[in-house]
Amino acid sequence: VSPTSSSNAPSIAALLAAREVVVFCGSGGVGKTSTAAAAGLGAAARLGGKVLVLTIDPARRLADALGLEAFGNVARRVPLDAYREFGVEPRGELWAAMLDTKRSWDELVLRHAPDEATAYRILDNRMYHNVTSRFVQSHDYIAMERLYDVHASGEYDLIIIDTPPTRNAIDFLEAPARMAEFFGGRLLRWLTMPYRMGGGRGGRVFNAASKPFYQMADRVLGGQFLQDIAEFFLNFQSMYAGFVERAHAVEQLLHDRRTTFAVVTTLEGAPLREGETFCRELGARGFDLGALVLNKALPEYLLSADSERAAEILGRESESLARLVGGDPPLDDVEATGRVLRTLADSFRNYEVVARREAELRTELSRLPAPGPEVVLSVPAFPADIADARALARISEALFGADLAGTIAP
Amino acid sequence: VSDRPRGETAAEQRADHGAGLLDRRLLFFTGKGGVGKSTVTAATALLAADQGKRVLLVEVDAKNNLTALFEHAPVGFEPRQVHPGVFAMQMDTEASLREYLKVQARVPVFGRIGPMARAFDFVATAAPGVKEILTIGKICWELRESLQGRADWDLIVVDAAATGHVISQLDAPEAIQELVAVGPIRHQTGWMVELLSDPSLTALNVVTSPEEMPVNETIELVARAREALNVPLGVVIVNRVLPELFTHADGELFEALRAPDVRAVLEAHAGTGAAAVIDAARLAVSMRRSRAQHLGELREAVDLPLLLLPYLFVRDHGLRVTRMVAEALGQELL
Q: Is A69 exposed, middle or buried (0-12, 13-18, 19+ CB in 10 A)?
């Protein structure tokens, strides 16, 4: 597929029909959440079945656009009736849920802890909130874990998940493996050993290897602080087996043939480079790159020779053209009309420059190593934000092609 | 390209409040991803350097793309001059720790720090604020050294964490004080809090763009920063403001030009492409309108000085663009 191809219609529907999980990723600000939601809407309308959009973005407007007052960890059904007016004839069901990181972690602890007392010792630990909210990839991991859970329930035909904005786009791919390593690693045992051997709150027994580390850590962090951390880890370790098993299962699901990835980017330098890196990383790790979505693209007519020529003439011959169209107010003001025509020409040239920049970036995408994305989609820049159902329906239409929807009657 | 948007007189009036921005010594820049935070940070460094200041530019996230804005190769923890007057460094918490141990804690750094670094990284990842304190500590240390005449940075400009993480980053010294009852770290954080909360020295600035999500995040961040942080807020920089194409009267004229019969005349003379030229202007007008609305919401909700930077209709990236942004910023700070 050539990245310059703008024919979207056949492929996205085929891609979504053949998969059970689609993971949307990309750098912040590219419209990932809306694109994921629009893909879900299109799938529910066009392909039928039960579709879940699992989002991490708490944007109120998205809830509004989906016609939901609010949504949280528990999935809610999106009323699709509102979309009929935009030509969407739903065949299936669309459900939406938002990932509540804190609650998901709590549920995870309650599930994996050997007994309730241990679970609450963990939940009450002052380190717990910090570890779950700040530990690198903690959000990523919980998102993947939640995905696994929902998929395993078998409730949905298609799950579309929107990933957290990460500093580094590949973080979440490594999250399950890192998490397993984190809780299962020799490092953790090594770190907590002095506390285990010293018996609870009391003294510590060092071995030769860990002593220098503790000397350094004491110096920097203070001994009590370090002990608090160790205690927390000791409790957490009781969940080790369940955790690691789960992390491996999550990893397997991501590599499964039923799972694919969609990378979303805008045609701007930094996001595009990040998107490109992401595509490469996915390929290198053996994940399936289903789609590359070029979002907020400027219209192609900005680059047509015809419009370019017209802009030039409108600018150059503004005065004579103003006289030509002049007559009825407000066009009787020839001077003002000439000014407006020149503004049209100038503005066109401005946007043409940006469109050209976009086209160049698009060409760079053809350097992506094989096999590359199965589908490359362009979604046009819409003047307004994704404020309502209509806007979401329009993105969906752009993704699936003009002839949206369940209108393909069975 | 001059795209100073018209009709922003309220902001112009407010802009003078931002005039003293570069007289401070430590400026943090945060913002939602994709709004141009790094470009604005780099432009601020460039502008200050142009005014004769010696600037330390700190990149905190590990993306290592800040020096590209000066068309310079990536740098490491050691500051390197990337442009006359601009010295850039890439934050590295492990290097910061090593420096801290050597210079301040006077712990002998033996050869075994290699394998131990991983253990420390592990604890630092889990323990509250340790990574943040190593980041913010290094920055505060450079400021203190400058104030006491042992370093000579006139200004430190930080491309800080994005809106979601910046509070915990800047709050680290105080968070540590709450969590650690005793110990050297607690002792070490007092002076940092003092420097960070001094409005004559430090400001946290927010970069945004006039779109829904960035504006919402900015409003939320300003409110949360006021509540949870002692770091003084500086200015809000609104990037990529689209130019207003028409005055109200000219706008009506434009609508009249879109009438089918008039359009037909234009197409007859300028070719069929004339329709696309009109459509392009229509798109520009609606985008501007939608953005103006978000800008209005921002102005209503946030009482900090707003500095407006125009959308740049340019083809390339790199130093030339950084310079254009710096010039626009300079205009706003006049």
A: exposed
The pLDDT value given to residue A215: 66
Q: Nearest chain B residue to A223 by CA: give it.
A: B183
**Cβ–Cβ contact B281 with A under 8 A:** yes
Q: Which two tokens stand for residue A311?
A: 């802009």
Question: What is the rounded CA–CA span in Å between residue A31 and residue A53?
Answer: 15
B residues 40-99 closer than 8 Å to A (CB): 61-63, 65, 97
Q: What is the mean pLDDT of each run of 10 residues along chain A (410 residues)?
A: 44 91 87 90 92 78 74 85 79 89 85 88 77 62 86 96 69 71 65 62 57 66 67 74 82 92 90 87 91 92 95 96 89 94 97 94 84 88 71 87 40
Sort out which chain A residues have CB atoms less than 8 A from B104's CB and list them: none
Task: State the complex-level ipTM.
Answer: 0.85
Q: Is B237 helix (H, G, I), strand (E, B) or coil?
A: strand
Interchain CB distance below 8 Å, A191 and B97? no
Task: Quick: pLDDT tens for A198-239.
Answer: 554 445 666 566 666 666 666 666 666 667 677 777 777 777
Residue closest to B28 by CA, chosen among B165, B218, B206, B222: B206
How far apart CA A277 and CA A65 sit, in angstroms, is 31
Tally C-beta pairs within 8 A across A and B: 233
Residue-wise pLDDT for A282-330, tens only, equals 998 889 999 999 999 999 999 999 999 999 999 999 999 999 998 888 9
For residue A105, the one-letter residue type is: W
Q: Closest Cα to residue B280, out of A205, A346, A64, A313?
A: A346
A117 CA to centre of own chain:
37
pTM of the full structure: 0.83
